[in-house]
Automatic annotation (TrEMBL):
Lineage: Bacteria, Pseudomonadati, Pseudomonadota, Alphaproteobacteria, Hyphomicrobiales
Entry keywords, A to Z: NAD, Oxidoreductase
Domain of life: Bacteria
Record protein name field: NAD(P)-dependent oxidoreductase
Pfam families cross-referenced by the UniProt entry: adh_short_C2
Length: 244
């Protein structure tokens, strides 16, 4: 497909999981993709993919984000995928975990949006910003995910605010809210619970479809939203029927 031919897409956390699948999906749709991640090793698997160039980018570092945006030039689609899952309730959480979650899950998006939005505006509209939230947010109370849910709810608020402020300049901003998706970090969370098979069965049992989502299924939604020119300001649930 060449639907995104001539379009420049910037993806954060593209080294694995949903970010990687989305970088590949945009490239298959004809886009020029900048796949970025803090982990250069992980990115190397994408280095020879047609349409994809890779670059190390730590989204906690404002100067690096600004520099990357300047070097890449005008971005048509920004996919903010970077995020980290802390486990624990409010009483179990360390304050530094909340600080880190706000920095990586929320402020990273403030940094990248500030860096690319002026270019999108200068282009005269047509830009799309897609932010990774979760159903564990303002959408659903999920046990054992306090810091995570606080920050993913903030992503939805951030998304709606940007959408409202820039709709007049032709920029759209949307959030994606997955349920549970197969990914390297999910594998780690399941292994760290001690009994891997029990942890996996518990994750699957809360999915009415009887299975976890795949990164490719989330990537499809991201590509769809990038081209869905009559929607903005919405949070899209993609969770195998968990929230219903
Ligand atoms: P993952 O957690 O397995 O991978 C995360 C990637 O982020 C890694 O490649 C890592 O190197 C990168 N990263 C970490 N810190 C970074 C930084 N400072 N700068 C740049 N990159 C950094 O991938 P995933 O599970 O697909 O999750 C991706 C996003 O989707 C996250 O925002 C996550 O919260 C969200 N999400 C995931 C699920 C799920 O079940 N997997 C569900 C809902 C939402």
């Amino acid at each position: 497909s060449d639907k995104f031919k001539g379009k420049t897409v910037l993806v954060t956390a593209a080294g694995q999981g949903i970010g990687k699948a989305t970088a590949l999906a945009f490239a298959r749709a004809g886009a020029t993709v900048h796949a970025t991640d803090i982990n250069e090793n992980a990115l190397s698997a994408l280095a020879n993919e047609p349409g994809i160039s890779t670059r190390r980018l730590d989204v906690l570092d404002t100067a690096s984000v600004t520099q990357a945006a300047a070097e890449i030039g005008t971005v048509d689609v920004l996919f903010n995928c970077a995020g980290f899952v802390h486990s624990g309730s409010i009483l179990e959480m360390k304050d530094e975990d909340l600080d880190f979650a706000v920095d990586l899950n929320v402020r990273s998006m403030v940094r990248t949006i500030r860096a690319v939005l002026p270019g999108m505006i200068a282009k005269g509209g047509g830009g799309a910003i897609i932010n990774m939230a979760s159903v564990a947010s303002s959408i659903k109370g999920v046990p054992n995910r306090f810091a995570y849910s606080v920050t993913k709810a903030a992503v939805i608020g951030l998304t709606k605010s940007v959408a409202a402020d820039y709709i007049g300049q032709g920029i759209r901003c949307m959030a994606i809210c997955p349920g549970t998706v197969e990914s390297p970090s999910l594998e780690e969370r399941m292994r760290s619970q001690g009994d891997y098979e029990t942890a996996r069965a518990a994750f699957i049992s809360r999915q009415p479809m009887g299975r976890l989502g795949t990164p490719e299924e989330i990537a499809d939604l991201a590509v769809y939203l990038a081209g869905a020119t009559y929607t903005t300001g919405q949070a899209y649930v993609i969770d195998g029927g968990w929230v219903n």
